Amino acid sequence: MQVHEMSKIKAMPATERGSGDEDFGAIVQVGRRSIAYTPSKEVRMRFTLNGNEADIPSAFAEDRLLWLLRDHFHLNGPKYGCGVGACGACVVHVDGEAQRSCLLMAGDVGGRRVVTLEHLGAGRDGGLHPVQKAWIDAGVPQCGYCQNGLIMTAAALLAANPDATARDISAAMDDVICRCGTHQRIRTAVVAAQTSIRRRSR
Q1: Element (H, E) at 160
Q2: Percentage above 90 pLDDT, the chain
Q3: Please, what's the largest Cα pairwise distance for the chain?
Q4: How far apart are CA 63 and CA 125, in angstroms?
Q5: pTM for the whole thing?
Q6: How far apart are alpha carbons 21 and 97 in whole angstroms?
């Protein structure tokens, strides 16, 4: 199984560090902050990211999952919208459930399975999940910023409840803010995806 190491890690050579840093193997730059740690002694955290094993220093456990995915794994499907879990633009799947990655700490997903929009259609015809295909067919996107949250929420809903009612669909999708107001197209696309999923499961 492939192991992804953290990217964008900047380690300062010992000559660039102060005399008080001798005990540390590197100064790691994470966004706006620096963390000193000893590689030989550090504890690492692992989780499954898009089907592959991801390996990160435990020093990053208190970083928001959203920033870990975007800044270090370069996965830009989840978007930053509000930072308080209200808009849904940052939704990812954690063990199959739709979760707001701006609220989760990286440490919350240790030993768990995380899937982002980039991997949603993996292994499917054309590389598209039925929800993604329905989205294209219905012409849902306008500005596109909320699409990650809407698609990931719909996919999680239909995986958990293939027989979701119109009320179930509205309740789930209305929880993700679409500033362009394409709610009718969203519902049309979710129902079309539901029909496609049911047909394939027969």
Answers
A1: helix 147-160
A2: 70
A3: 68
A4: 35
A5: 0.79
A6: 42
Q: What is residue 81's DSSP assignment?
A: S
Backbone angles phi, psi at 191, to 5 degrees: -65, -40
Closest CA to 142 of 182, 186, 87, 189: 182
State how far the Cα of 132 lies from the Cα of 114, in Å rounded to an integer: 18
Q: How far apart are CA 42 and CA 70, in angstroms?
A: 23
Burial class (CB in 10 A: 0-12, 13-18, 19+), 1: exposed
Compute how many other C-beta atoms are within 10 angstroms of the C-beta atom of residue 97: 11
**Domain formed by 126-201, architecture:** Orthogonal Bundle (1.10)
Domain ranges of the chain: 6-119, 126-201
Q: For the segment 28-41, what is each residue's pLDDT rounded down to a tens digit? A: 444 444 444 444 45
> Do residues 81 and 88 make contact, with C-beta atoms less than 8 angstroms apart?
yes
Q: Decide yes or no: CATH 3.90.79.10 for domain 6-119.
A: no
> How far is it, in rounded angstroms, from Cα 187 to Cα 18?
59
pLDDT in tens, 56-110: 988 899 999 999 999 999 999 999 999 999 999 999 999 999 999 999 999 999 9
Q: How far is CA 68 from the centre of its chain?
A: 9
